[in-house]
Structure formats: structure tokens, C-alpha cells
Design goal:
The structure holds two protein chains of two kinds. Chain A is of the alpha+beta class. Chain A folds into five domains: about 40 residues; about 100 residues, Alpha-Beta Plaits; about 240 residues, no CATH class; about 90 residues, Distorted Sandwich (Calcium-transporting ATPase, cytoplasmic transduction domain A); about 120 residues, Calcium-transporting ATPase, cytoplasmic domain N. Chain A is built from 28 helices and 27 strands. In chain A, strand 1 and strand 2 form a beta hairpin. Chain A starts with about 30 loop residues before the first helix and ends in an 8-residue tail after the last helix. Chain B is mostly helical. Chain B is built from two helices and no strands. The longest helix of chain B has 26 residues. Chain B is elongated and about 55 Å long. The model of chain B has no long low-confidence stretch (mean pLDDT about 85). The chains are: A alpha+beta, B mainly alpha. Chains A and B meet through helix 3, strand 3, helix 6 and helix 7 of A and helix 1 and helix 2 of B.
Amino acid sequence: MAAGALPCTHCGAPSPTSDAPGDRAFCCGGCEVAHAALSQLTCPVPAPVHVADDRPPPAEPSPLDDPTFLEEHASTDDAGITRIELAIRGMHCASCVWRVEALPERLGGVYEARVNFRRGRLQLAFDRGRVSLGEVARHLSRMGYDIGPVSASAAAARVAEDHAAMIRMAVAGACAGNAMLLAFALYAGLFDGMQPIYREAFRWGSLAVTGVALLWPGMVFFRGAWAGLRSGSVNLDGPIALALLAGGAWSAASTITGRGEVYFDSVSVLIFALLVGRFIQQRQQRWAADSVELLFSLTPRTARRVVGSAGDERVERVSVAAIETGDIVEVAPGESFPIDGEIVSGRTAVDASLLTGESLPRTCGVGDEVFAGAVNVSATVRCRVTASGADTRVARLMALVEDASGRKAPIVRFADRVGGCFLLAMIVLAAATFLLWLGHGVHVALERAVSLLVVTCPCALGLATPLAFTLAIGRAAGRGILIKGGDAVQHLAAGGTLFLDKTGTLTNGRMELVHWSGPVPLLALVAAAERESSHPVGLALAAAADKLPAAPTPEGVTHLPGEGVIAQTGSSRLAVGSERLARRLAHVMDPGLSAAAHAWAGEGLTPVYVVVDGDLRAVAGVGDQVREEAPSVIRSLERRGWACRILSGDDERAVAHVARACGVGEWRGGASPETKMAIIKEAAAKGNTVMVGDGVNDAGALAASHVGVSVHGGAEASLAAADVYLAKPGLHPLFTLVDGCERTLRMIRWTLAASSVYNVAAAAVAMSGHMHPIVAALVMPLSSLTAVSICVSSRFFRSEP
Amino acid sequence: MSVLAIVLPLALVLAAIAVRGCIWAIRSGQYDDTDTPPLRMLKDD
């Protein structure tokens, strides 16, 4: 074995061996482990792009090439380096970061590429004279990453806001730390005695530190409380500001006059703890918004429109703004759909994972809906535009998320309402304490009142309640449940009346062959005859034979609208259709088959008769089947105090059948959208009402109920009207939602109870005049810590019931 | 007391310098992305 050492498969360094089993050699154990781990990753690692690949890619106009785009979004410095921030999609793991950041080595003219992995952002520095942004985009797209524009001003505003919050936190943290250090010295002095001059020095030091904390980071609370007061509503900032003000002012006065207790450490720790809580909460909210924004920014800004008449078709590239409803748009594989539409030709796999949370691409054919932002995976298709621009589902979703983050009110309102009561209770208790101790002199009375105000500050409440809601909503989003606000969580935890729509909610929402009575080979023949059908019943029959051997396509298929299909197969004549058609064509109706068909009709199914050469040979029952999990989910919901009812626009008989199958006692069929809304309004006046539905005609009902839940696949109108959107199909998410909301509320009650115990105990001690500053310093962080740790450690949403 | 007169202001000045440094770090974007740099470090170039 005199041959030279083999290079390490993982890192390329020379390996000690020259004989490698399976062509793999490693220089060290570390490389071997790393290689094994990397090769097991599910992350797709396309063939590496070598420098040799860098011939100019085919020039295809890209919106990123537009000079006005660069003017708007990029900045160029004196050295001629253009910097821009872009959204990037397709990042899976660390190696994706490396590959994208290696861009300067592969593409001349690019100086720097920096990726923010979590937010899906790419910061690019390049020479616009040497390379265009379009070339960068094409290069990255060959590597499997898409880039798109982001709003520069919004990004800058966000960064500035983040920086301000972090600086506030840093200052408050430093002040709290130093105030506590000084407080330790003071407490030690309390037990062991200390010269007044040292005491004074420490007190003045604490005053300086706490003054900074109050006047800089603490200002947020004063401003918030002031804004609340001016608008006539007390928010949670109110009691917090009162506690800070009382504690700060009293301690300052004590320091200056040299008598009385100081609470500098409690005040500065309070500011720090609250700011940290708010920061976590804000991050969570941003995260949900980020993912939708990423999707939105990557939705193409141009589309290829098909123009001209059949035979003389041309494809032109136009801006999405110029696309109108009804236009035909062509989408190549690998591209994202620029619009919402319906496929008119072609068949492809569509990856809508960012939009719906479904991980696998879905196969879509003619007539299927596709949504802007979804990726066309396998083949070129043409679609008829149903919505573009701001009307697309992704744009609406984006608006919805923006609306929800602007509408923090429900979460805050809940805490604020409690906060208002709290403020009142604090003032009453403080006044009572003051009066109680007035006999001992004004100074003593004032001191007791201030100590009460400081220890009863609703730190746990202000921190834990919004944090719990935010965490719950964030975790629900991770399970494909989008909740618009905290009030929905509250209502869903309370129990009450739950109205369910039938079609698409309790049922699968599409026609399927449920029963077949007759020879199986005939079914294949029927399916072949219905292959070209566009009627839902025909489609169901055509789909039913998917697993059967294909039958020869019949000749001379005639569609009789409203009746069925007549076809010629070989020597015999096949008719598939309604009872009317069968009675006209059949000499004799087989009583057994007729009876079966009538029985199925009674179950709410559509009976289909198959007549061959004048003989009734088979019958089929076609219908929209009840979801498998519906009965069990409804049972579990009822166990949790929900009265389930079915409210549907469908025919009464079909609704009755579904109600029986699901075990629902009360139902209402044949309800028009107006009736639905009236019923919901009436129920909502009596108690907590939840409506679960999907259709356009549910929008009114969804809005009228306390909580409207829009199920997977729902129409845009229902998406906007609903408070909760379930991105995963089936009824299980509904149970997960209710269960998770109950847990959240239970947990919030726990934290409230825990912090009340602290507060009541602290108030009692303070009123009795035994509130030592040490006790105050201990109780305050303990109560917040308990609340926050209960909050963070609980599991709000479980995936399965 | 003489010790305290030096040490106490000194401690506060040190704290102020630390805060100043932290603010500089925040403003220069050191905390903007806490997820990607740990991955970048692993890159072998």
C-alpha cells in the first residue's frame, strides 16, 4: 500500500489511510461523525455550484433589474457599493447560510452577503456597475433560493424600535443591579448598625441610580399611564406608574430629609422585570408577523399573461398590478404563483406550506384553486385569475396579521380591566392604611401607605397575563392555528353554544362514492363514461374507479343536463343518471336496487342509477361524507361544556343525517345566510357563542358570534370575518384549539391566584405596619418570578386530543 | 468614609461605562441577529 493518503471525505485534509472502504476516508473521528450526521440530514443539498458555472445565465427580465427598484430600496455609498436588504426563501439549515454567504466567491461584483437565518433576510453589498440584482436573483434561484424585496422604511423603523427597547432594558438592568448592590450594604447596616454618614452615602448613591432608571426606561410606564388617563381609561400602566411614583418620590424625600425608609431597589428591579417581560412579548408577536411578511414579499411582482386568441397565443410579462380578474396567467415550475386563481390547463404539484402549514405538495389539476405565494413545483400550468394584488389570500392574511398586532387591545384590555380595579383597590387600601395610622403621626401614616403601594404593585399581573396570551397565541400558530386576539382565547375557554356548518366542516366538503350495489367491473365502465364530466356527482363516480383497472373509453358520450350521461360501450348502451332517466330507459326497475337507492336518498345521499341496454343493473349512492373524527371530536367538545349544534344552508334531510351520524341533538337545515346570522345573534345575546364554518355565506354568522372559527380551505370572506383560522384540515385542530384555550385560561387563573395571595399577604403586612424594606425587596421579585415561571413552563397547545 | 467617597462614584462611573458600551453594541446592531452568527462560525473558509 504505497499509494498516497486519500483526502478526507468531509474536510479534504489528508487522511492517515490510503485504503478506504466504500470510497470514504476520514482524517479524524470528528470528521467521520460530522459526515455521518450531515448525510442523515433531511435538508436538501443540491449539487454545489462551482465557479465554473458562472457563465451568464439566460437573460430574463426580473423586476429586481428595474433601476427604480434600486433607487427605492437600496443605498449606494461614496465607494460605489450598493447595499440592500432582501427577503430570502428556501433556507433550511446552517449549510444554506454558508452557501448563500459564499456568494461573493462565486459571483463577481458581490462584496458581501449576510444572512439573517431566523427572519429570512439577506443583506447584500454589491457593485451595481459590475453585477445586477437580477443576476444575483437568478444565481441564487439556481441554487434553490428565492429573493424578493422588503419595505426598507418598515424594516428601519422596526430596527430602531428594537434598539430602543433593548437600550431601555440595558439601562434598567444596570440600574437595578447597582441599586441592589447598594441595598445589600444598607440591609447589612440595618442589622449590624452603620454610621449615619455611610448610610447617607449609600442612600444618595441609590437615589442617583434609581433616578436614572425612573427618568429614562421608567418613563415608558409614566407615558403609558398618562395616555391612559387622558383617554379616560385606566390601563395596567396606571397602577405600575402609581407604585413607581410613590416608591420613588417617597424614597427620594426620605433620602433628602434623612428619615424614613427607602425602596430604591424594589423600584428599579420592578422597572427592569417589566421591561424584560414586555420585550419577550413583543418578540413573540413579531415572529408570527415575520413569517407572513416573508411570504408576501416573495410573492412575484410580475406575471406572464397569455394574450391573443387560441392558436395565436403570446405570453407577455406584465406587472401584477396590471393583471385583472379573468386574465389567463402562465406559471412555470419553480415559480411562485403571483395571483390567486383557478387552473385552466395543466396538472402540477403545488407547495403551499407557508400559506397553509401543509408540509407536502398537493397535486392540482384543472379547476383546482391555487393561491399567490404558493410554489408551483412540477409543471407549467395556466390559471384564470380570481384575485390579484391586495385581494389575494396572502395579502389578506398579511393585513389580518397586521390588524391583529395593531389590535393588541383584547389582550391588554383584559389585563387593563383588572388593572383598573387594581388601581382602585390600591388607592382605597393606601387611604385606609393612611387613616389607620394617622394617630401615630402623618409621617408614619404616609410611610405605611407608601410601603403598601410599593408591595402591591401588580407586577405579576402586568407581566404574566399578557405574556400568557402571547405565548399561547404563538404556540397555537406553531400548530397551524391562527388566533387573532386574546379575547378569542378567553371565549373559547368558557364553554357555551358551538354552531357548526355542515359542508366542509363536519363533512369532507366534496362528493364521494359512498355505496355501490352492482358488479364491480361495471363501476369502472361508469367511471370511464363520467371521465369528462364536470358535475360533482360525475366527478365522484370518475374518481371512485381510480383503484380499479381502467376500462376502455366509451364512444359517443352524450351529457344530458340534469339527468346524466348516455354512452356507447362496444355493443351495449350505458346510461348513468337520475331516477327519472332510469325510469325512461329501463324496461323493468329491479325492486331490490330501487329500494336500496331510496334508502340511500333517505340518508341524504344522491342516488345514481346505471342502466345497461334497458336493464337497471346497478345503483350508486354519492354524497359528502361525514369526517371520520367528527363524532369523537363533538363528544369531547360536549364533555367540555359545549352545546354543539349544526347550522347549515343545506337540505334539511341531509343535515338531519349528518347530525345523527355525529351525535348532534339539535340542528337546523335550509338556513339562508341571513337566517344563520339571526340565529347566531339570538344565541349570542343569551350566552357565549362560537361559529365554525368555511363558506362565503358564513361570513356574517362568523362575525356575529363571539368567536368565529374559519376552517381549513375557507373562503377569503370567512377568513376576514373569523377570529381564528385553522390552517390544518380536519376537526382535530378545533379540539386542540378549545383544549389549548382552556389550558391557557386555567394557567392565567393560577398565576392570578398566586399573585393575589402574594399581594393580599403583602398588603396585610404593610397595613399592620410590619413591612420591612427587606420583606418588600423579597416579595416583589418572588411574586413576578412565580408568575412568569408558571407561564413559561406550561404547555398550552398539544397537537393531539 | 474617605474610601467610600472614591469607591462609590468609581463604581457608578464603571457602571455608566458598561451601560455606554452596551448601548453602543445595541446601536451598532450586535444584537440584531442572534441566530445566524453561531452558524457562520462553523463555516470553514
